[in-house]
Amino acid sequence: MNRVARFLKSEDGPTTVEYAVLLAGILAVVIGGITLVGGQTANFWSNNQTQLDSTFGNGGGGGGGS
Predict the structure, then answer these.
(1) pLDDT tens digits along 6-22
(2) d(C-alpha 39, C-alpha 45), whole Å
(3) Quick check: is 34 in a domain?
């Protein structure tokens, strides 16, 4: 009976739950941010590739003068 009373008075359980909820909220914000920035970054690099292809031609091939 003494163990049950100590368990009910202990604040370790609620504290753990609060930290878990806080962590879930932080993870949701981080994942949302990565998703948002990731899409914009992909568009940025795609646009750069398109501009480079139109400027230098689609042949690639690197340098060389002959």
Answers:
(1) 766 777 777 888 899 99
(2) 10
(3) yes
